[in-house]
Amino acid sequence: MATDVLDLADRLWRGEVTTSEFHPVRHLGGLAEICDGVAFVPAFANVTAIVTDDGLVLVDTGSAFAASAIHEELRRWTGQRLHTAIYSHGHIDHVFGVPVWAEESRERGWPAPVVVAHEALPLRFDRYLMTLGYNEIINQRQFGAPGLRWPTQYRYPDVTYRDELTVQAGATALALRHEKGETDDHTVTWLADRKVLCCGDLFIWASPNAGNPQKVQRYPLEWARALRRMIELQPEYLLPGHGLPVMGADRVARALGDTAELLESLVSQTLEVMNGGGRLDEAIHTVRVPAALADRPFLQPVYDEPEFIVRTVWRQYGGWWDGNPATLMPASERAVAAELADLAGGATRLAARALQLAEAAGCPEQDIRLAGHLAELAWLAAPGDPEVAQARHRVFSLRADRATSTMATGVFRWAASESLAGG
């Protein structure tokens, strides 16, 4: 199975298969032995295992639903007890595997594993408990999982650090460094003697998840700088939090460097609009991925969208206001919708025009975006009208069909389903 994982990674790099076919946020299964004493398990969120004289060290531990499968996979590779678990960051798909290992340690009379993370990570867990309902809703929407329940119990770290920390397990030294990128609590783990770099979600075989529309602030420029610092280490093996390993120093440098360049370009283009007095709308519709990077197999917008990163940059440096005076202290959405529907001759006319735009042969991107506005206005003005609801369902189903990213697809399909559920 190890050969299959690494062979697939090579085929993805060469463009023989795509990340649309082998999405980086999926449970692939299997195990790849990367180099002496280092194994990689490609799951919904990946796990890296390192054999040491004192026991096993894991970088990330997987999600709750995959934890047992990951444990079984690694048990076929090594019988070592879990000595230390390092959280690359606090997203729940990375931090819910420890209980499986801890229970095994209790049953066998082994010392309990130690969990290490950045000092900001416990604050993330605290926030998750404060926003339990919200996180449940947005993740149901993002992943199309209506039954998803947000966890209420977390395995907090035993050891935290601020900037850098060396974890010593027997003769093995792992250098931990804090970085900001997708989160404010990211840890990069560097195994210098084997040139292995575990980067968490700072590289995920996709356009960076730096703009997620339903989640908290991301840090695109800090992210790019983190990638540049990783290149300086001259790693030969890049083991990401999602997606497959990148093998070979040249490929690793290209993956990290191109991702940094993409982020730097989106940031600089957005700041140029801001510094010129433009509005967010102008930035959204003019900032573009550099043409030289658009075809990179590891930078395709299959999870997040570069367009969403523009909004992240605007929020980080410019606040929440988009520059439109009407949106500073706006009327309610339903009041605006009702007024426009009345001017148009009724909500059904708005809905009909939305369908006409969305269903036109060869519908250009700008028209289907406009159709979304009209369908939403019609539905806000007359949410109980079956004709309007059907039109909204159809328009957002078409938008979902056309979308490439998990983020956009999830929101559009949720809206389509919501239409038929009566809002």
Supply database-style keywords.
single chain; 423 residues; alpha/beta; Metallo-beta-lactamase, Chain A; Serine Threonine Protein Phosphatase 5, Tetratricopeptide repeat; 2 domains; seven-stranded mixed beta sheet; six-stranded mixed beta sheet; 15 helices; 13 strands; elongated
Structure write-up:
With 423 residues, this protein is of the alpha/beta class. It has two domains: 2-262, Ribonuclease Z/Hydroxyacylglutathione hydrolase-like (Metallo-beta-lactamase, Chain A), CATH 3.60.15; 328-420, Serine Threonine Protein Phosphatase 5, Tetratricopeptide repeat. Helix content is 46%, strand content 15%. The protein is built from 15 helices and 13 strands. The protein has helices at residues 2-14, 67-75, 98-108, 121-130, 132-143, 220-232, 249-275, 280-286, 306-318, 325-328, 333-344, 347-359, 365-381, 386-402, 406-420; strands spanning 32-35, 38-41, 47-52, 55-59, 82-86, 114-118, 159-161, 164-169, 172-179, 186-191, 196-200, 237-240, 246-247. Strands 1-2-3-4-5-6-7 form a seven-stranded mixed beta sheet. A six-stranded mixed beta sheet has the order 8-9-10-11-12-13. A hairpin with a 2-residue loop joins strand 8 and strand 9 (172-179). The mean pLDDT is 97.
Count of discrete structural domains: 2
Treating each run of at least 4 consecutive H or I residues as one helix, how many helices?
15
Strand residue percentage:
5-15%
Q: Ranges with pLDDT <50 over ≥5 residues?
A: none
Number of strands: 13
